[in-house]
Design brief:
Blueprint (H helix, E strand, L loop, with lengths): L4 H14 L11 E4 L9 H16 L5 E7 L5 H21 L7 E8 L11 E6 L2
Parallel strand pairs: 2-3
Antiparallel strand pairs: 1-4, 2-4
Protein name: OmpA family protein
Keywords: Cell outer membrane, Membrane, Signal
Subcellular location: Cell outer membrane
Amino acid sequence: MRRRPALLLLPMLALAGCMTAAPPARRQPTIVFFNADSAALDSNAATLVAEAAERAKANPTLPVRVRGFTAPEGSAGYNRSLSEARARNVADVLVAAGVNRIRIVVEPRGPVPFESIPTESRRVEIVLGD
């Protein structure tokens, strides 16, 4: 008797049709670092923001969150203003690169404790999606 391999595939095809796709992996933020007491982007930071802009333009339905942070030194008001200035500068560069401003949410976070090294607190995180 001759085997029919096609018949063996039918149950597997039926099961495959019932499977759902895995959810997309959580997107890692693009992290842009700043010098102390500065909201200016250096050339490395500008390159990172440009790359983030390209990813944002390739995914036009996703929001873009721009979160600004500062180191804990100084007054809370100064640090809040600095974290907002950093985030707004990054948002402005994203817009200049072609990302629709309406998609961008600026979130100044203010001072955060030092992590492994002090410069990690002086940053902006660009998050594509929620």
